[in-house]
Amino acid sequence: MTVRRDFKEPARCRPDLVIGRDELYTAAREQLTRGGSVLLHGPAGIGKSTVLRALAADYGDAARTVLRCSATESESHLPFLALADLFGLVLDEISDKLPAAQRTALESALTGRGESTLQRDGLALRLAVLSALRALAAAGPVLLVADDLQWLDSASAELLGFAARRLGDTPVQLLCAVRTEGQEYDRHLRASPPDTLAVRLNPLSRAQVSALLDHRGYTDLPRSTMREIHRTSGGNPLFALELGRALGESTTPPRPGEPLPVPTSLRALVLSRLDMLSPEARRTLLVASAGARPTLALLHAAGRENAEAETARAAELGLLATEPEGPAVRFAHPLISAALYAEAPAQERRAAHAALSTAASDPIERARNLALATTGTDPEVAARLAEAAALSRDRGAPSVAASLGLLAARHTPPDGTPAPDRHRLQAAEDAITAGEVDLARDIAREVLTRATVPADRIRAWEVVIEAAGQALGDVDAVFPQALADAGDDPRLLALVRYHLAWRKLIVEGDFSEARQEAANAAELAARGGDRRTELMALSFQSSTETLMGHPNAPATIKRAMTEPQDPYVACHHNGVGAARFRWLMMSDQLAEARSTITALLREVRRRGMVESEVHFQRFLAETELRSGHCGRALDLARESLRLARDSGIGLGASAMLASLAEASGGDVDRALALAREAAGRAGEDGDQMYLSRALAALGHAQLVAGDAAGAVGSLRRVRELEAGLRITDPARGRWQGDLAEALVLVGEPGEAQDVIDVTREHALRLDRESVLAVLDRSEAMVRAALGDHEAALSRLTSVQDRLAKLGYGLEEARAAFALARLRTLRPGTGPGPTSYDEAARLFRRCRALPWLRQVDEAAAEGAAAQRLVVVRQQPPSDVLEGLAAMERQVAALVMEGATNREIAARLFISVKTVEATLTRVYRKLGIRSRVDIVRLAAGRHAK
């Protein structure tokens, strides 16, 4: 009999669960699968019930009997209520299996007819619950699901705890959830079976909150608003959903400086204790909620004379944090501050801000509070806000600068100087810097509805284009309008032409046209005296020429680096520093490239340039990956991807690099998924340039995963794409060696050699030493596949040394691995137990775990490899003389008893190629199977 009481989770719960809960869900599911119990714990609204319902629905089918109870605070005083929920429907099944005294006590507790109590029937009840669970388990596994343990009536909690501690090997598992603050779950854990796994549900990240709201249909919220929802909710999914719902129902979104609309449900949840404070204490807390970084000193300066006593009382009530925070005043949860502020009348809010506008020591805080205390336009307030925005910009807080700029626009009279829209455009540019592209685009679009001055319109169009990111095809209609607004002004035309160069590259995939457009933009900017745009255009031109293998690339980089320089361009991800970094990487100057990108990353973080930080973090990860520091590269790539998902910037590029890092130092399945995600995003954006990079990452991951045919398919597409893009520098994507190796594995050494020859020509012309070394490694594998093992061994030994000197640790390790595999086929030597030690050492030094696993698998086949070498040392039988070289090798290995997989590994070919070769061998020798080949071998030995 299976009892399931409303366990099937609502359809909408499971997608929510996946968002931010996949790892803990997997851990809990595995614990249940092992036969253990699980205790979920965390604060209210954190998602415990959702996870509990999903686990019960997912794992419940494995149990014969599923019992459930869900307690509530209003019913926690009713004795044995949880017990009745659990056993009410199975009492008839188990009652006759209990001793009479236990049966009577249990029936009395469940029905209430006998007025059973723990004091009177304590031992009988305890034993009855234990016996009931054992009786149910005798017929099959039992899963007991209990939600909100904190509200369990004390009698039921005592009985269940007694039984849980004594179940032993009885197949009864508990799946429970309890509301806790901090780590206060020990009491509940002590009342659980000894093998219980305690799983704490932590707050969601900003990206996870965004994904949750997207799933629930709140898809039009700007990222700046999403950031505020995450901050206010503290990552609590229930609070975030309620805030999102309130915003969705609101007809007008909050303006900068205004609080989020906090729904009544959340206000009641967090403000129920406010009634226990005096009116003066509430005003003190309101001032604290209005301040950015409230302290006791600030509250005193704002006129709150009894701040110590009033905040102490608020801490006693759980409204403020109780742990030592020095002079800081911190709310127990951000939502308390938000709800308190939203609850206060507008007049009281303005009074709090007015007090803080003179009390705050920081000029930015004084200006912000003055603005929020002032109604209507006021030129003096607007001027102070503009100064505060500039100061925030200098401090590396562009998001704050954008907010202050919008406040300045609100307080600027329509005929003010500068005009309100000038403040808005500056705010939009600050928002772009901060990575808040949705906010920036909305501001720019609003300005375009009324702006008539060409310079203002071009600034707005530039923001719209920048906000599109890689999806420039989405804003195709902008460019004709921007060109019309620019007229014949060289400064304005230079800006538009610079962005047109990017469009030529990304949308049309035409490097030649993009290079020419950038050169035109640089010339126009120089004529118009716009040094910043000139430098940006020269940086773009030099990067394009580098990728094309154009001979002018070094000269253009030199022009871009001449004085005077612009500090913004110097550290921008499309600026001079980034162009120089790319050139260093492609020229094998890894150490200088690392120091260059490290300095750039430090500077953009200081300036708060989020988009540049995303890209530079990825560049640094790529540098570490090339150097063979796979663990470090993986950490950096994952952080870059997290930042990209959080900001919505550079997602495709970050996923691409993360795929390469995962394939080299992490999880290969994850690498495949990320590469496909990157390719999908590039396809959606119409970005041909990054599509080729994404497909190269996919091909690499497929090769590492053992899917040589898949790798060939992906990398052939890369070759076609880059030929169409006129990318000739092989150091750009470095996929050619992977393609050649994969082609060898699928039995196409001729095509592999063609790839090597064409790539070598470009690498020699551009002096790409590391590319040449990798090509030599690939060519050694071609030679081995064709039977020329001596030449292959000699070349691989040289390649390993060259890559080591260049600092390409991972490629060096791959060469050592190829050398170890090839030595198993060399006449006169056997693999021995330590043949792969050098490759394993190098991969271990790189922390290249996927490759290290391949070495371990190859070493595990050492005994079989030894037998294969012995066979190759023996003179071939006359019967094999009529076979081709590859056919003779395959036949000889079969004679020794090697499997098709072992043969493929030793000869650097695919299993499919082995099978096709054997088919030809059968036909030429007039036999039908590999058994006949073994018989031939036996006949040879008999002679």
From TrEMBL:
Name of the molecule in the record: Transcriptional regulator
GO cellular component, one term: cytoplasm
Keyword ATP-binding set for record: yes
Gene Ontology MF: a single term: ATP binding
Chain ranges of the HTH luxR-type domain: 876-941
PANTHER family, alphabetized: TESTICULAR SOLUBLE ADENYLYL CYCLASE, TRANSCRIPTIONAL ACTIVATOR DOMAIN
Recorded superkingdom: Bacteria
Annotated signal peptide: none
Keywords from the UniProt entry: ATP-binding, Nucleotide-binding
Xref: SUPFAM superfamilies: C-terminal effector domain of the bipartite response regulators, P-loop containing nucleoside triphosphate hydrolases, TPR-like
Gene3D superfamilies, A to Z: P-loop containing nucleotide triphosphate hydrolases, Tetratricopeptide repeat domain, Winged helix-like DNA-binding domain superfamily/Winged helix DNA-binding domain
PROSITE patterns referenced in this protein's UniProt entry, alphabetically: HTH_LUXR_2
Gene Ontology biological process: regulation of DNA-templated transcription
SMART domains per record: AAA, HTH_LUXR
